[in-house]
Amino acid sequence: MSRFEYAPAPESRAIVDIRSSYGLFVNGQFVEATDGKPFKTVSPSSEEVLAEISEAGPADVDKAVKAARKAFEKVWGPMSGRDRAKYLFRIARLIQERSRELAVLESLDNGKPIRESRDVDIPLVAAHFFYYAGWADKLEYAGVGDDPQPWGVAGQVIPWNFPMLMLAWKIAPALAAGNTVILKPAETTPLTALAFAEICQQADLPPGVVNIVTGAGRTGQALVEHPDVDKVAFTGSTEVGRAIAKSVAGSDKAVTLELGGKAANIVFEDAPIDQTIEGIVNGIFFNQGHVCCAGSRLLVQESVYDEVLARLKRRMGTLRVGDPLDKNTDIGAINSAAQLAKIRELSQIGEDEGAERWSPECELPAEGYWFPPTVFTGVSQAHRIAREEIFGPVLSVLTFRTPAEAVEKANNTPFGLSAGIWTDKGSRILWMANQLRAGVVWANTFNRFDPASPFGGYKESGYGREGGRHGLEAYLAH
């Protein structure tokens, strides 16, 4: 399969107005940090410095928590659900109005292709706010009692792989339930969260209802451990999730953790082959593999292994790696130098342990952080690349003979976030779904999300659910 050559089709940067520096968003205003050192956010595709960002120290976090507490007690908590819904609807519409700007900003700061930011991330962000706006005056029907009450002040820490979408997953249900929030975005991708602060101002959201404090691990720790935070929500690595669980143990804080994954994408011999190949590619190469539920372990039934692998390699040869703002790009930049180093290290370990590595011919840009789409064959369950989360565009391929063997291999992991099943038999899909220890199981598709559908995992993939009624329940005391 030859690859078509397309002329560059770059999205314009002119729609985005990035300030040279940003303060913290506390009590409805941008303010200077008092006890933190500023840091720079860099575009991963070019290593260009985009802006200088304030670091929130413990004193800054304390101010944000006090603002959130006051807003909860005086304004947002006593407000009727109907009136809260008006603000959420207003925010959703503003996100839609500024969708092109937000998509460009996300691709610049994160490195993901503009097609994904434009067609997936930002539309889902608006959809989550619309969805939870509809719940705000119907909390008694959420299934958590006749008079559900908000926890109060929610401290939320989000990762860098889906900055704006993870913000929506956290903030929208929290506000609908009547909580106020302090959000800490990832230090490498703060710009869309700060743009969201501007949207809160545009929507005339009461001061203190949403506060955004930027920084790295020190800032997140100060927020999570603050004694006046009632609810903690975290999405990120299992290692940090464990630390958070320990730090809040013994307190009365409510906690939800959405952590890492090592999902199995299981292909049976009767699977619709064309659809399956696209699902495999979407499962591991979407967002450069920076997806906690990525289908990073491909389990293929032996009878179709050769055909699946040959067609997968052909399809990988058509993927375009390059400028995230080019609408033709399929795979953008790795988010940071540190993440690129981790991907390289684990890939090298895969080769050292005897797996066979293959990537299509691919010219990578000279500047920025890049890694080609990669597949490993000859992988066993003992290989580190089959056990550890690489969080990059790297696929490990294993084989199986029977459905029981597929289940055993799929469940042989400390994670339990997601899985995929590809088969023509509905009965097999239902049987497999019941056997797999995964919070989300996709059938003949992968990486599909909807605001009304809950998402979350088992084991080291965390606990609690986000999205749907279950995501609302996490922000209601019961």
Task: Describe the 3D structure.
There is one protein chain. The chain has helices at 58-76, 81-97, 99-110, 114-135, 163-176, 191-202, 217-224, 238-248, 273-285, 305-316, 337-352, 384-387, 403-411, 426-435, 468-473, and strands spanning 21-22, 24-26, 29-31, 39-42, 49-53, 149-150, 153-157, 180-184, 210-212, 231-235, 254-258, 264-267, 297-301, 356-358, 374-377, 394-400, 418-422, 440-443, 462-463, 476-477. The protein contains 15 helices and 20 strands. It starts with 20 loop residues before the first strand and ends with a strand. With 478 residues, it is α/β, with parallel strands linked by helices.
Supply the CATH architecture of the largest domain. Answer: 3-Layer(aba) Sandwich
Overall spatial form: globular
User: Which value, in Å, is the CA radius of gyration?
Assistant: 22 Å
Counted up, domains total 2
Span from first to last CA?
A: 57 Å
Question: What are the low-pLDDT stretches, counting only 5+ consecutive residues below 50?
Answer: none
What is the CATH C-level name of the largest domain?
Answer: Alpha Beta
Largest sheet features: 7 strands, mixed
Approximately what portion of the residues adopt beta-strand conformation?
15-25%
Helix content percent band: 25-40%
* Structural classification: alpha/beta
Average pLDDT = 97
- The multimeric state of the shown protein is single chain
Determine the CATH topology of the largest domain.
Answer: Aldehyde Dehydrogenase, Chain A, domain 1
Strand order of the largest sheet: 14-15-16-13-12-17-18
Instruction: Identify the CATH homologous superfamily of the largest domain.
Output: Aldehyde Dehydrogenase, Chain A, domain 1
User: How many separate helices?
Assistant: 15
The number of distinct β-strands equals 20
Protein name: Aldehyde dehydrogenase family protein
Pfam families: Aldedh
Family: Belongs to the aldehyde dehydrogenase family.
Organism: Kribbella pittospori
